[in-house]
Amino acid sequence: MTAINFVDVNDNDAIFEGSGWDAVIVVTPSLDAIAFDEISLLASHGANIDARIGRSATLLFAPGLAGGRLIISPLLNPQDDIQDVRAYADAARKGLAIAKEAGAIKPLLVVAPHSAEKYQQSLAVSALACGQELWQALERREALGLKPQMQAIGLLVSDQQAQVLNAIETGRHLARDLCGTEPERMSAPMFAQYCQQAFADSGLAIEVVEDRDVLERDYPLLSAVGRSSFAVPRHQPRVVKLEYCGEGEIERSYFFAGKGVVYDTGGADIKVAGGMAGMSRDKGGAAAVAGLMKTLSLLKPKGIRVVAELGLVRNSIGSEAFVTDEIITSHAGVRVRIGNTDAEGRLVLADLLSHLRLKAADAVNAQLFSVATLTGHVVRAYGGYTAVVENAVARDQQVGERLQAVGEAWGEPLELSRLRREDYQKIVDPSAAADIISSNNAPSSVTARGHQYPAAFLLQASGLQQHGLSSAKPLAYSHVDIAGSATEGDPLYGKPTATPLVALFNHLCQ
Ligand SMILES: [Zn+2]
Fold first, then answer.
1. What is the per-residue pLDDT across 9-49, written as a single tens digit (0 to 9) for each?
2. Any idea what DSSP says for residue 148?
3. Beta strands in 318-434 (DSSP E)
4. Is 359 one of the catalytic residues?
5. β-strands 205-209, 238-245: how paired?
6. pTM for the full model?
7. Ligand 1 centroid to 264 CA: how many Å?
8. How far is the CA of 341 from the centre of ligand 1 (A)?
9. Ligand 1: centre distance to CA 505 (Å)
10. 158 phi and psi angles, rounded to 5 deg
């Protein structure tokens, strides 16, 4: 099953009966903002007998319109300063849900604009919200042989706009599948295989590292996390490498490390008191990066090169499990004391980043990113929002600020956190036996600066610290913590969001 299919509709008559569409969903800041006379007339007549019309999403019997169904879904308080473009997403989802319940399978989505600058992407955000609403869990699709819930969604956009939205949604669909699936169906080898299938004939280069000797040599920290999983062949780690190279002269290069902890028991520092449930979603970073690569492979933007490494590993527990206190030398040659085996994501990322660092060193205008469901602290600090923590080079280039602006416009808002000198104090190994320690030995959610200081660790353990502002080769690096934003709704089993795919894609293609 592919993602939903957005179809460009160039003809305003598509709102009428006989056009082939079976419902008209209007997402609008107010009844006055609807540009179609036939629709606003029906809506204002309807509002005379039903006060809900214009206040909440409602279905009107609409003879003469496509499918005889008109769904008006208004924005809630669009004029409020605190409101953002997600008001459109909310309204689109409510409207679509009603259309689905009513039996529509080919609705036409009409989005009435709002003059405020913050709503400039209202149409795209509304359309993508439909994709989020309609995604069904992979296990359920496979078990029941489910088909997509909608045949198509019509949009009053150009062919090119529809193409972009389809590509973004296809990437998000892949990301949700990879993130949201249970730990056997989406074990590390199965995750890698799912990627191989998704990227077959895509034009992207894909390589899967699975040999234990190679993994232990090239990804020693990642392999420590996966040490006890090697005993079970179907749980063994994988590293997936993806590379996209656009046509024409390369003007910018991007490097992504994705955390793909397919299951996190906590390891020897085992998660207790019910803390393990939902830990199959600890692969949202790798999933979002894979989805981003899928979108790129479909749209083939020119002049950019994008390299990704996904670290897929199960943090198992067993007689071979790595333990706290061990000292392990990272790929970059930094001797890392393990502070807590449940702080495994940063270990996985550090080796991936070290490989990317070597590639970035001779790349044109390189920017590096790590994307991970990394800390409970980010959830504590920001709730459902993504955090970006960047090094001085990235800050100098305003990478985080740009990402924040584009995320805000496209309905994936994020918070900028500042890396501070105290964050480096937290990774000093008290015994001095190791170069650094990976973490303190308490949950990040009760640790001050618990989502900021891991960026200090990532910079040191990956060797990126050597590429600061005053170095011969400064490298911009931004760490993106999506622990709060990778899923929505239920804290354990909510729907994956594919965040921050949309913000990153638009950042790359700006
Ligand atoms: Zn963990």
1. 989 999 999 999 999 999 999 999 999 999 999 999 999 99
2. P
3. 327-329, 335-337, 366-372, 386-390, 414-418
4. no
5. antiparallel
6. 0.98
7. 6
8. 7
9. 27
10. -75, 165
Q: Confirm if 58 and 52 have CB atoms less than 8 A apart.
A: yes
Residue partners of 305: CB distance under 8 A and separation at least 6: 243, 244, 245, 246, 250, 252, 253, 254, 363, 364
Greatest C-alpha distance within the chain: 78
Percent of the chain scoring above 90 in pLDDT: 97
The kind and range of the H/E element at 27 are: strand 23-28
Query: What whole-number distance in Å separates Cα of residue 460 and Cα of residue 446?
Result: 23
pLDDT of residue 2: 64
Contacts of residue 503, Cβ cutoff 8 Å, sequence gap at least 6: 386, 403, 406, 407, 410, 412, 414
* Catalytic residue chosen out of the listed positions 93, 346, 426, 449: 346
Q: Strand, coil or helix: what is 20?
A: coil
Could you tell me the distance, in angstroms and rounded to a whole number, from the CA of residue 449 to the centre of ligand 1?
A: 17
- Cα of 446 from ligand 1 centre, angstroms: 15
Residue 476 tokens, joined: 């911009």
Residue 1 pLDDT > 70: no
Q: Are strands 386-390 and 476-481 parallel, antiparallel or unpaired?
A: antiparallel
Q: In the annotation, is 346 catalytic?
A: yes
Q: How far is the CA of 343 from the centre of ligand 1 (A)?
A: 5
- Write the single-letter amino acid at 415: E
What is the chain's Cα-based Rg?
Answer: 24
Q: Which helix (H) or strand (E) holds 80?
A: none
The residue assigned the tokens 């949309």 is 502
185, 271, 335, 402: the active-site residue:
271
Segment 38-41 long-range contacts (CB within 8 Å, at least 24 positions apart): 38/64, 38/65, 39/15, 39/65, 39/70, 39/110
What pairs with residue 435 in β-bridges?
none
Helix (H) or strand (E) holding 206: strand 205-209
Tell me if residue 24 falls in helix, strand or coil.
Answer: strand
- Residue 393: strand pairing partners: none
Mode of pairing for the β-strands spanning 58-61 and 238-245: unpaired
Average pLDDT over residues 222-247: 98
What dihedral angle (degrees, nearest 10) is formed by the CA atoms of 10, 12, 18, 23? 100
Rounded CA-CA distance 50/280 in Å is 45
End-to-end Cα distance, the chain: 30
Ligand 1 mean position to 507 CA, how many Å? Answer: 29
Cα 344 to ligand 1 centre (Å): 5
Read off the amino acid at residue 43. A
Match 């080796």 to its residue by tokens. 351
User: What count of other Cβ atoms lies within 10 Å of the Cβ of residue 474?
Assistant: 17
